[in-house]
Amino acid sequence: MPKKPLIYFLCTGNSCRSQMAEGFMRSLGGDRYEVRSAGLEAHGLNPLAIQVMKEANVDIRSHTSDVIDPDTLNRADYVITLCGHADEHCPAISGNGSVKWHWGFDDPAKASGTEEEILNQFRAVRDSIKSRIEQFLKEGK
């Protein structure tokens, strides 16, 4: 059986955006990929990320917030950063032929306002991430 391409989603804290991306790729990509996510730091899984992903019928409750693993990073086929900070501070990838992309999304955890306004920011980021993943899958990467 051929090896599945590994996609490694990276963010600063592995609490929102990278978790959403991992959830959508697992859900929409089926078993075509091995999918992981991590952060420069581990901030814990954000409860609002869990909530808005549940609204999209994707359960990420069992995900863990992890720090970047050098071995996983160096065997990844695709390294995708989801925030500028992670893009700028991502550890160097050894020359294994992996592709590094940056898909920048605002951090919904920094949203302010009413509870509904904050939730709407999470939903907007969630929907943008889903759209980008659908594009990735459509392009047959």
Key phrases:
single chain; 141 residues; alpha/beta; Rossmann fold; four-stranded parallel β-sheet; 5 helices; 4 strands; 40% helix; globular
Secondary-structure map:
Elements: E1 6-11, H1 17-28, E2 34-39, H2 47-55, H3 70-75, E3 78-81, H4 84-89, E4 99-102, H5 115-138
Parallel strand pairs: 1-2, 1-3, 3-4
Helix pairs in contact: 1-5, 2-5
Largest sheet properties: 4 strands, parallel
Mean pLDDT: 91
Q: Report the sheet-strand fraction.
A: 5-15%
The number of helices is 5
**Rg computed from alpha carbons, rounded to a whole number of angstroms:** 14 Å
**Whole-number count of domains:** 1
CATH architecture: 3-Layer(aba) Sandwich
- Name of the CATH class: Alpha Beta
Overview in brief:
By secondary structure, the chain is α/β, with parallel strands linked by helices.
